[in-house]
Design a protein that fits this description.
- By secondary structure, this protein is of the alpha/beta class.
- The protein folds into two domains: 335 residues, Rossmann fold, CATH 3.40.50.12780; 95 residues, ANL, C-terminal domain (GMP Synthetase, Chain A, domain 3, 2-Layer Sandwich).
- It contains 14 helices and 21 strands.
- The strands form six sheets. Strands 4-3-5-6-7-8 form a six-stranded mixed β-sheet, sandwiched between helices. Strands 10-11-12-15 form a four-stranded antiparallel β-sheet. Strands 20-19-18-21 form a four-stranded mixed β-sheet.
- α10 packs parallel to α11.
Length: 441
C-alpha cells in the first residue's frame, strides 16, 4: 500500500463517501483490500504454510464467496505458536499490546505505525458518528497504560478528529469530577458500571450530572444493549443518571478494529476499509443476516499481526438493512454471549450474559457472578452468586431468572463486599463475572 493510498484511505472525507456508497461499490473495495491483505498474510509462517497446503494464492480470490471457502483461524492456532502470525521482513512494531486474557493466556500483539494509524481512523469515524466534532473535549476514563490498547485507540481517535483528549484514566471519582468541572468535556469514555457510579457519586457530593455538559457516553467492556438493540437495565440507568445518550462499543486487541453505535444506536457499523465481518454457525457456514452466530473477522490492512477469518468466540448478529443514520454499511449487533461460555442446563442452552442482564434489573443486587460446573449427565451445573446488603427473598431472584431463562439455576446470596472481592481485578481491566469450572473432557 503506497503512502498516497494510505492517506486517502484514512481521510474523513473518503471514509464518509465509502459509507454512503452502494453495496456493489463497497464490495468491490472490500474484495480488493482482501486480496491485498491475503498477500501480506502470506509473509507469516502460519498463513504461508496454510495457503501452500491448499494450493491457494491471493490472486485466486475472485469473489467474496471464494473468500468464505478459506479455513477459519482459531484462538488455539495463535496460542500454539503466536510468533507464526508475525510477518517476516523488516516491519518494526512501535507499540506492544496484550490481550485481556479473558479466555486464556494473554497474547502479545505488535502494532506498527501504520496499525496505530488505522486504529486512530477507526475511532475517529466512531466519534464522528456519535456527534463529537473537532474542538470537542472528550474525557477518557479508561486505562492508557499496562499494555492496554483500547485507551490508546480512543486517545488517537480524538486527536485525529481534531478534538481534545482528557486522559483522566479509570477510578478516582473526585478527580474525574474536578476535570469535568474545570475542563467541561462533552463526552465520557469508560466502563458503563463505572460511569454510572461516577454520576451517582457526583450527585452525592454536590454535582449535577444533568448540568455537567456531558452529552455522549461511549461505553466499553460491558454490554448496554440487548439483541433487539434496546437498552439493558444498566444502559437505561446510565442514560438517566447523566441525561446523556449512551453508545456501546465492542472490540478486541487482536482485532485491531472496533465497532461502535452510531447516532441511531442500532448496532456497531462495520468499517469497510478496515475489517471484513462474517457470522457463522457451528459448522463454520455463513448464516443469513439477522441470525445469531459466531463473529468471524478479517482485519484488513493490518501489518504487525495479520489474521484471516479469525473466530472471535463471540455470538452476535449482522444487520444489513440501511441505517437511519445515513450510513449504508452493515452493523454488528450486541454481543449475546461467548461460544466458550455456552451452557447446557436442564436441556436449555443459555449464556451467562443473559443471566447478567436479569440480575442487573434487580435494584437490590449490587454485584454478581456465575459459576459453571460439570455434572455426570453431560449437562452443566450453574450457580449464580449474588451480592447484596439489602433484604431480598431468594425465591424472588430465582423467579426472575426462571421467567427469562425458562430454567431455575441455583442462587447463592452473599454480602456485596465478598462478591466484589471475587470479581474485581487488580489490573484495572474488566471485572470477571463468569468462572468456568467445568472439567475438560
Amino acid at each position: 500500500m503506497t503512502n498516497q493510498s494510505e492517506t486517502d484511505l484514512f481521510s474523513l472525507a473518503q471514509g464518509l463517501a465509502l459509507r454512503t456508497s452502494s453495496a456493489d461499490v463497497r464490495d468491490q473495495a472490500n474484495l480488493s483490500l482482501l486480496r491485498r491483505h491475503l498477500l501480506h498474510a502470506t509473509t507469516t509462517p502460519f498463513y504461508r504454510q496454510r495457503f501452500q497446503d491448499m494450493g491457494f494464492t491471493p490472486d485466486h480470490l475472485e469473489t467474496l464467496e471464494d473468500f468464505q471457502k478459506l479455513p477459519l483461524t482459531n484462538r488455539q492456532d495463535i496460542d500454539l505458536d503466536p510468533a507464526a502470525f508475525v510477518p517476516s521482513g523488516n516491519l518494526v512494531p512501535v507499540d506492544i499490546a496484550l490481550t485481556s486474557g479473558t479466555t486464556g493466556e494473554a497474547v502479545v500483539v505488535p502494532y506498527t505505525q501504520q496499525d496505530l494509524k488505522r486504529l486512530a481512523f477507526n475511532e475517529m469515524m466512531a466519534f464522528h458518528r456519535v456527534g463529537i466534532k473537532p474542538g470537542d473535549k472528550v474525557q477518557l476514563c479508561v486505562t492508557l497504560d499496562r499494555c492496554f490498547i483500547a485507551g490508546l485507540a480512543y486517545y488517537s481517535g480524538v486527536v485525529m478528529l481534531g478534538g481534545s483528549a482528557i486522559r483522566s484514566g479509570p477510578g478516582k471519582s473526585a478527580w474525574q469530577w474536578e476535570l469535568i468541572r474545570k475542563l467541561k468535556p462533552v463526552a465520557l469514555v469508560g466502563v458503563p458500571s463505572f460511569l454510572l457510579y461516577l454520576a451517582r457519586w457526583g450527585r452525592e457530593h454536590g454535582f449535577n450530572p444533568h448540568e455537567s455538559g456531558i452529552k455522549s457516553l461511549v461505553t466499553i467492556g460491558e454490554p448496554i444493549r440487548k439483541s433487539d438493540m434496546s437498552l439493558t437495565a444498566l444502559g437505561e440507568d446510565l442514560q438517566e443518571a447523566w441525561g446523556a445518550k449512551a453508545y456501546a462499543s465492542y472490540g478486541a486487541t487482536e482485532l485491531e478494529t472496533a465497532f461502535c453505535d452510531c447516532s441511531a444506536a442500532a448496532g456497531g457499523h462495520v468499517h469497510p476499509e478496515l475489517i471484513h465481518v462474517e457470522i457463522v454457525d457451528d459448522e463454520g457456514n455463513n448464516v443469513e443476516p439477522g441470525e445469531p452466530g459466531e463473529v468471524v473477522v478479517t482485519p484488513l490492512g493490518v501489518q504487525g499481526f495479520p489474521l484471516v477469518r479469525f473466530r472471535t468466540g463471540d455470538i452476535a448478529r449482522l444487520h444489513v438493512e440501511p441505517c437511519a443514520c445515513g450510513w449504508q454499511t452493515p452493523r454488528l449487533g450486541p454481543i449475546e454471549g461467548r461460544l466458550a461460555q455456552r451452557l447446557k442446563f436442564k436441556g436449555t442452552t443459555l449464556y451467562p450474559e443473559t443471566i447478567f442482564q436479569v440480575l442487573a434489573e434487580i435494584p437490590e443486587v449490587a454485584a454478581f457472578y456465575v459459576e459453571a460446573h460439570s455434572t455426570y449427565d453431560l449437562a452443566d451445573e450453574v450457580k449464580v452468586i449474588v451480592g447484596t446488603d439489602a433484604k431480598i427473598l431468594l425465591a424472588d431472584i430465582e423467579d426472575k431468572l426462571q421467567a427469562r431463562l425458562r430454567v431455575r439455576p441455583e442462587v447463592i446470596v452473599q454480602p456485596t463486599a465478598e462478591v466484589m472481592a471475587v470479581i474485581d481485578k487488580e489490573d484495572g481491566r474488566k471485572q470477571k463475572k463468569f468462572f468456568d469450572l467445568r472439567k475438560v473432557s
